[in-house]
Each structure stands twice: as structure tokens, then as C-alpha cells.
Amino acid sequence: MLTDKAGKDAYEASTTGISAENPRRTGGNLVQLISAKGERISHPEFDLWVSDVTDEQLCSLYEDMTVIRRIDAESTALQRQGELALWPPLLGQEASQIGSARALRDDDFVFPSYRDNGVAYCRGVDPLDMVRAWRGNASFGWDPYRYNIATQQIMIGSQTLHATGYAMGIQNDGADSAAVAYFGDGATSEGDVNEAMVFAASFQAPVVFICQNNHWAISEPVRLQSHIQIADRALGFGIPSIRVDGNDVLAVMAVTRIALDRARKGGGPTFIEAVTYRMGPHTTADDPTRYRDANELEDWRAKDPIARLKTLLLTKGLLTDEAEARVRAKADEVANKLRSGCVNMPDPAPLDLFNHVYSTPNSWIERQKDHYSRYLESFSGSTQEGAL
């Protein structure tokens, strides 16, 4: 593990940006519109892309982040209490998910990783559907075509290939929608992600790659797998890249809108590195205290995405006590429904195991289903005979 100060400084030294008018490498700092202290930062080049965001919408973004954090906390508690087999917390990454997801159109199609429940929430997915697979009651949670978001991908990075293929289909259809792939910094070392970027660049596919650099690929720091900024990797494929403060919901929205605009106008793919931090474990099976410095965690707590937006809203006089109470009540209501629905979720029938394996009837699956059905019936017969 690379822990020396020189290695860390080398990673933090370089930055990559993108011009809103002429997307390319610019070598600037992270795009930021709200500071860690909750101060609004003026940036003429990027302010344009969020100039239509009203005070009411800012409050709505705050509600989104608060609700999804509450969903995340409730799901973590459900796992600890034995109601879920596993859960991948997103604590600290709310702004990178909410800011980007709220920039999408309904006809854009999203390909998420297993941690992107904030994106699913913005697409209209019921929180209860987010936990079905983690409870072991279903192999997936929702109908992808109802919400235009694929079910969550467990295989690291493979959703980038799906997104690129879908984007090429958009091209063939002559539509102006876009495909969006979400993944973590660790996924950029996977072959699938690199292959996806090769195809996306070669065919100038309308796909946006959103890498949430949360600094840890399970127990390995990002500076170990990449001695340059993650965004620089995309440049090697000929894909314009941008680095944004992933804890700044407004800045994330701005750069996502830029990338989507390029895709819709035939400008090809864009790579966004949202620099954020995973404040919780990789999953509930992980113990980050074994590999992560507590001081590092405290440094990032000071950059909390929800706290900084709350400070801005308070400064603007938008977050009254009544408004805050409504947000908290909404979060509690959603969490209570999630808990009740999860605990009372009916177990699937044994033969449901064979459903949805193929989209059309399959004789091989039907034969297995028949054999298993007769096997189950044999127990029923034995029970009846024993009762006599």
C-alpha cells in the first residue's frame, strides 16, 4: 500500500478540467460552486449551466440528499439487524449522485453500480425495490424500462460496456438522448471500463462516464492504482474529461449538464471524475478502521455535501425551522415505509427461482423447473403419509 507523503502529494498535485465552451483538458482546479464552508463561489463559465436553478430547486436538492442519506442509514441498520444480507453504504457521496441524476432527462438511460441508490431514487425507484436483492427475495429490484435505469451491477465496471452499447444504439436510432454510466475509482483499473472507453471514443457514442472517486477501492487507496488523476486516464482514449468537487451538488449538476449537452449534439463521450469520499465501509461486510486513518475521515467530514448546502440555504434565508422539519419528516416517512416493507416482505415461492432467467420460454429451464417441482411434491407426499 502506498502511504508515503511523496506518493500522496504526487497524486494530489495534478488536476484536469474541461472548458464549458470548448471541452478539452485545461489543467485547472476542481470545478466548485459551493465551498466546503457553504459559500457560493462565482464561476462565470459554469454558473451559466445552473443559472436556471431556483431557490426552491436548491431546497429540493437538499431534501433529496437528506432523504437518500436516511434511506442509506436505515438500510445499514436493517443489515445489522439481520434483515438484509448485505448493504453498500453511500454515506458522503450524496451530492455526486443527486447532482448528476437531477441533470438527466427522462429519456436518458442510466447504468448504475451497486452503490448508486441516490441515482435510483431520483429516477423514481421505490426505496423498497432497492433492498429486494440484498434481502435475497429477488434477483433484481425494478423494471429497468419503467424508470430508464438498469438494475444495479455487481460485477465491477461491466455497466460501462452496457452503457456504451446502449449509446451506440441511440446513435443508430437518430435520437438525442444519452446513456450514463456510474462507477467508482477502482473500476477504472478494470478491463471492461477501458474497453468501453475505446468503443465510446471510436464511435463518438453519446455516453457520459461518471466516476465517483471516493478515494478507496475497498482497502486500497486511489493513489496506489493511479499515480495521476483518474480523469487523465480518459484523455489517453481521446475522451474529454473534467474533475469536479463531488461534494458540491451544484457543481456536479453543472458539469453533468455540459457533458449531456455535448452528447446530445453529437460531441461524443465525456468522462467526469467526481472527487468525493466514502465515509462509511465499502459494504457492511467491511471494516474501514483496519486500513483507513481516522484523521482522514475527519478531514472529509468537514466537507460533508449536505452540511455545506444546508449552510448556503441558511445564509440565503431559505431553510427555516418549518422547512427543515418538513425535510426531516419526509426522510423519516420514507425510512419507516422502507423498514416496514422490508421486514414484512413475503418470501418468494420456491419455483420463483426459475422465473425471469430467460426473456422467452426455454426448454432447459422448464425441465429443471419440472424436476424441482416433483422433488418438492415428494416432501408433501411424505408428510401426508406420515400424518396417516
UniProtKB/TrEMBL annotation:
CDD domains: TPP_E1_PDC_ADC_BCADC. GO terms for molecular function: magnesium ion binding; oxidoreductase activity, acting on the aldehyde or oxo group of donors, disulfide as acceptor. InterPro entries: Alpha-ketoacid_DH_E1_comp, DH_E1, PdhA/BkdA, THDP-binding. Keywords: Oxidoreductase, Pyruvate, Thiamine pyrophosphate. Residues 1-24 are annotated as: Disordered. Residues 64-333 form the Dehydrogenase E1 component domain. Signal peptide: none annotated. Its cofactor is thiamine diphosphate. Residues 1-11 have a biased composition (Basic and acidic residues). Gene3D superfamilies: 3.40.50.970. It comes from the Bacteria. Coiled coil: none annotated. GO terms for biological process: branched-chain amino acid catabolic process. This is Pyruvate dehydrogenase (Acetyl-transferring) E1 component subunit alpha. It comes from Arthrobacter terricola.
